[in-house]
Amino acid sequence: MMNIKQWRARMKWSQREAARQLGLTLKGYQELERGTRFATGEPCHVDRRTKLACLYLESDPGSHLPED
Question: Which CDD domains match (predicted)?
Fold first, then answer.
């Protein structure tokens, strides 16, 4: 099971930067870290594509989007 908050800490990124690198909204990323949807309180999980993107970004530092 992937802990996206620990991944972000290893990357030394803010939530905003992690969301940008993964192509997510900040709110969507925050929900993944929290594990629940803000609006409903329903559980949410890191999907396979996001897990793969995290692994790719961590394994290849040259793959990061340039900073704005």
Answer: HTH_XRE
Q: Which residues contact 2 (CB under 8 A, 6 or more apart)?
A: 46, 51, 54
Q: Give me the pLDDT at residue 34, please.
A: 96
Alpha helices in the chain (DSSP H): 4-11, 15-22, 26-34, 48-59
Residue whose tokens read 């329903």: 42
Return the domain boundaries, the chain: 4-61
Which residues are CB-neighbours of 25 under 8 A, at least 6 positions away? Answer: 19
Between CA 11 and CA 41 the distance in angstroms is 28
